[in-house]
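Tutorial, part two.
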Amino acid sequence: LLWPTEFSRDTLTLCYDASFGDTTIDASAFLNTSELWRDEAGWAENDNTKAWVAVVTGEAENSGFNIIANTVINFDVEHDLTYGIDWVDYETSYRADAYSGTAQVSSEDAVHVGIFLEDMIDLGNGFTLTPGIRYDQFDITSKVVDDDFNDLLWAMAVSYQATNNLLFKLSATELFKGPEIGEVFTGAGLSDKENSDIQAESGVNTEFSFAYQDAVLGADALSFGATFFQTNIDDYIYDYAPIPNGGPRDYWKDNIGEMEIDGYEVYWGYQLGGFSALITYSNAESELSAFSDYATLEGARLDRQQGDTVSARFDYQFTDIDLDLHWEVLNVDDVKSALDLDGASVDNSKDGYTVHNISARWVPATMPELMVIVGVDNLFDEFYASQSSRTGVSFHGRFGNLFLTDYEPGRNIKATIAYQF
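Running the prediction step on this input gives:
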């Protein structure tokens, strides 16, 4: 069914920065309002669904502010303090006015406040220690739960500048995330089931990285490095958890177990004259250790999990004619079919793809106010679906096979001309 739909968004952002001696302050406030209108008259084409015919309206309003301050204090060692506050208010409302005269309405809201302090301590001899602390308060009123959650979190990072060209870093950060309210596009929680026992997610993210850069092997700059990470999320929240002892299509939002995500990224860079190149390789895998009530989900991966990814970008600057050329390549490997969360039920394997984008940028030295950019995205018109979207085939008892894959755009030719007065 094709439903006439309008979805608009307006954003207002105010920013402020100032300096007071050894202290700098950056502050911003924002208001983001999205509005939905949808005519679902198409339901009338089927006697089994004509009772659902309605005109849908909805609104999501997100507002908030953040203040970040930085102060440098010199005692026996230097302390670089970063501290501040984040405050975000989420509000959603939904209304479906049926042609029969009845109406279904839903509204939800949540407020998230975080207060934080971080101290980067220069210990000398190339060592830097950065402890941090954060308090989070999350209040939510939704169809699922009406509750407040809070946690006191810590973070610690250690970096070592072995030489002017080599840096090592090790860090660990505690995580916190409360249950989310429903999106307006899907009813602002209208069909969600109550679960007053749901808990906020918590966990720890650990990272180790190193970076090297030097003018060696004939290059102006040769660089390489890697980042290895492990993320453990306790009380992972799944929006479509099967209700214990429920029917085959009974789902709710609930904590289903511990999700572990392991991955790494390595890169190599080269620069000589006007030429530069950067090649990266990344891999990440996820696995759920399920609670006993959700044993059928044991070992499930995240549906949005990517295949092994190689990206490369090449740039060349023709300084004599003020022209920059850019070429980037993205290659994503296949993902084999396996148990996942919220993926397709018949075939959830993912096909790999390779996409090329090219562009040219001209800013004449005699007229720096002018900028001209031309480019082609998906140069070879690859027919592919991003693995970050839902893909595959599911089976529905009434409609049969549902082909979920939403393919990305083909070749796109674009040009931009800008002039700054």
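The chain has a mean pLDDT of 94. In part three we will examine how such features are distributed along the chain.
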